[in-house]
Specification:
Order of helices and strands: HHH
Number of domains: 2
Low-confidence stretches: 104-110
Distance between the termini: 27 Å
Helix content: 55-70%
Shape: elongated
Number of strands: 0
Amino acid sequence: MLPERSGPGRPKEFCSQRCRQWDWVSRQRAQELELSEGELVIAREELDRLHDDLYVLACAVDDTERDLAASGASPTTTELRATLDWLLAAARPLRDRELSAPGHTPNIPS
């Protein structure tokens, strides 16, 4: 989200000239491919990585639910901390994901 601007002129739509340029390029490419507003082109490799990270998160949620159910009505602080750490570790790759523009190597944390 861009910060509020109180001065004269049009409000900013983009955070940088680079983002403005990528928006223009993407709109031109969408016209060439005759894509509707709701369609998107994404590299297979990028989509596969996203699916992998979502699968890991889904498994972590399932494991967390199972572990909490197995610990009974009053899990210990240690059990809760271990469960939370596992869930956060599975969620971080999605939080840190940066989808890349075509021809740009994405920032993929190891």
